[in-house]
């Protein structure tokens, strides 16, 4: 049992400062699997080391995607390690051999959690979801379902279900993204509206969006050159628009 702070310090550097210099990196399997099962930020940080063991050392982790799915909670859009998590999630969900129900469950859960996410996270996750549709065309039924649910009460998707296979995500639709088309931030509304059109085959590059911050969004808005906006409006009452215009006594605007 290690203190939480020590777990984080070790896991942050494990993938690039420890594993490459070990004669048998597989000795870290037990440590990483235990860390992955703890939950929260520690599980997110353990993903880097697990990815190396899975990708380079043929580690077979049962229920890996089920655990990855369980890591998706409201805090995922707010944590310090958000960029690291979504970078790895993008790699794990890149295989075209993943079943449609699994990818649909990830798309649906990310969309549901997006309803309470900050704008900087939404501008990253919406292109992320679009890329998943490009890789897995079978999931496009979530977008092109004409009689899909209109709100949460009618949605067959079971948010509380821990297993992606039992979540009924493929029976649902992405009404959450449709709701984001009315988002108060114009860039978010514009990004969400992309799903109304047919997606191009080329994936969006999300690498530049992973670490997008609220400060950068605010700074971008401040530097925009806005057109002059009238701050006062007075309805026309006479021929030349003045309130006490002498023409108003003799002419009417019909």
From TrEMBL:
GO terms for biological process: ribosome biogenesis. The keyword RNA-binding does not apply. Keywords: Membrane, Transmembrane, Transmembrane helix. The keyword Transferase does not apply. One of its GO terms (cellular component) is small-subunit processome. It comes from the Eukaryota. Residues 43-192 form the CCAAT-binding factor domain. InterPro entries: CCAAT-binding_factor, Noc4. The chain crosses the membrane at residues 31-54, 85-107. Belongs to the CBF/MAK21 family. This is NOC4L protein.
């Amino acid at each position: 049992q290690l203190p939480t702070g020590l777990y984080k310090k070790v896991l942050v550097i494990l993938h690039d400062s420890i594993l490459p210099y070990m004669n048998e990196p597989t000795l870290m399997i037990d440590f990483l699997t235990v860390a992955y099962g703890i939950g929260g930020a520690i599980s997110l940080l353990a993903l880097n080391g697990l990815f190396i063991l899975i990708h380079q050392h043929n580690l077979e982790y049962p229920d890996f995607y089920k655990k990855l799915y369980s890591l998706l909670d409201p805090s995922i859009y707010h944590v310090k390690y958000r960029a690291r998590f979504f970078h790895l999630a993008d790699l794990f969900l890149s295989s075209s051999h993943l079943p449609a129900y699994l990818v649909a469950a990830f798309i649906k859960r990310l969309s549901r959690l997006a309803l309470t996410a900050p704008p900087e996270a939404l501008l990253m996750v919406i292109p992320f979801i679009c890329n998943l549709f490009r890789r897995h065309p079978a999931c496009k039924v979530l977008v092109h379902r004409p009689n899909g649910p209109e709100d949460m009460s009618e949605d067959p998707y079971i948010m509380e279900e821990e297993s992606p296979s039992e979540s009924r995500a493929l029976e649902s639709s992405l009404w959450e993204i449709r709701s984001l088309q009315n988002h108060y931030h114009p860039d978010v509304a514009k990004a969400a509206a992309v799903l109304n059109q047919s997606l191009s085959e080329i994936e969006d590059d999300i690498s530049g969006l992973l670490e997008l911050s609220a400060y950068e969004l605010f700074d971008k808005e401040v530097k925009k050159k806005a057109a002059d906006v009238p701050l006062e409006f007075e309805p026309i009452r006479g021929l030349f628009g003045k309130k006490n215009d002498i023409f108003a006594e003799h002419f009417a605007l019909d």
